[in-house]
Model the fold of this input.
Amino acid sequence: MGVSPARVSEWLAGKYLPNPASCLRLADALNVDADEVLARAGHREPTEPLAPDDSRSRIIALVKRVQMTPRQADGLEAMLMAWLESPIAGEIDGAGNGT
Done:
């Protein structure tokens, strides 16, 4: 990971916090969500956890399992961005969890 064991010990002891780049490497090495690591290190605002029955939780779980090509990922991102920019998105966004 490119970090000395002594530095990791300092992180664990609370003496220092990992910088954002180290947080991303940690998240990758531990196979955890990078936003969670960044939030725990104080580099991002923590997000509220989603309820297990929230449709967004199911969608996020599916996206994490899918092996997408860069083209597929770009297409999915474009679709979601178009949805956010549509006039209907405001109505859905204000409706709670979208279920």
